[in-house]
């Protein structure tokens, strides 16, 4: 069984310490797939001191180490050689930016060559990565380019609710101009296929939200529903996709949380993220659908204000690992 690769993220954020905390809490032993970390073995060893632990480092091969804490151990693909004395929690620098990108690219390569079951990512600092010469807004764009994919879908998921976004990070005033029948249809296709291939659901039930209040009240509050959203739903249905709508966002989530749908297709970021985080603030998972590989992520940032304190919550990391394993076990090509 191939391992899951857990990328360390920003060395100066909470990534290293939540990995160590998960190890000490025996989180990895509850998974059927082995978890191996892609990061920096010295940074991880340094993070163990936050929990008053001393790690024993054993070199297994070139850039491959075992990090041992008594009976607990962790395989580490150490892809950087950062000076732990010169980096400080909450203060990212260019050397960390390059390291973050290297961790991700190594993990992607392993998955594309079928020597890993999937990637789980800890949070990165986008500014530091771009300062190091990588021109990507974030993880998702880097993953898409390296995997040769033009269109992916961002899904935020919890046990009770899963939301997929047609548009992501842009001003609300720009959302209507970025919506199109084709964009919505592609989102529906990718979501339906991913749920079939990676979540084991033969006919995923997708609810499509309206853009305007009350689904525009037959054109009273806008015409995007009639001109863009409804035609996309009709086209998806013609392809055999189980989708319906446009639904008014102020009522649909009530039924979705009760189990009427497998996922909700949202027109813009906050439309989906507000209800999702109301229910799953600590344990939400960020999933990239449409890639040829499995990628899940914690749904939080580097949390510089908590970095180095040992107080960061590991619930999202645990959920991301569990979801990646579920997707790997269900995967159908």
From TrEMBL:
Main location: cytoplasm
Broad class of enzyme this protein falls into: oxidoreductase
Entries under InterPro entries matching the protein: PdxA, PdxA_fam
Pathway note: Cofactor biosynthesis; pyridoxine 5'-phosphate biosynthesis; pyridoxine 5'-phosphate from D-erythrose 4-phosphate: step 4/5
Residues annotated as binding a divalent metal cation: 169, 214, 269
Cofactors that this protein relies on: a divalent metal cation
Binding residues annotated for substrate, in chain numbering: 139-140, 277, 286, 295
Pfam families in UniProt: PdxA
Cofactor binding note of this UniProt entry: Binds 1 divalent metal cation per subunit.
Assembly notes: Homodimer.
Protein family membership: Belongs to the PdxA family.
Name of the protein in question: 4-hydroxythreonine-4-phosphate dehydrogenase
Organism in which the protein naturally occurs: Desulfuromusa kysingii
High-level lineage: Bacteria, Pseudomonadati, Thermodesulfobacteriota, Desulfuromonadia, Desulfuromonadales
